[in-house]
Amino acid sequence: MNKSRALADLMPGDHAIIARLKVDEALYQRLSAMGLRIGRPIQVIRQAAMSGPIQVRVGFTDLILRRADALNICVSPAA
Description:
This protein has helices at residues 25-33, 67-70, and strands at residues 5-6, 15-21, 41-47, 54-58, 61-65, 73-77. By secondary structure, it is of the alpha+beta class.
């Protein structure tokens, strides 16, 4: 059984698949434009201290996400 969880809960080095984006339409469009789409693999590269931003890799692109946004990106374990 696949259990989804928030992207912000992953540790550096973890791989996952984007399962759901729980955001408003404007943020959904912005994240999609950056490559964060349902079904895409994602890897956490690093997390800043003190609940700071999270660096992720989608394909060949590295992105920095606010932790608040990463909490609303649901991921499933990568196969």
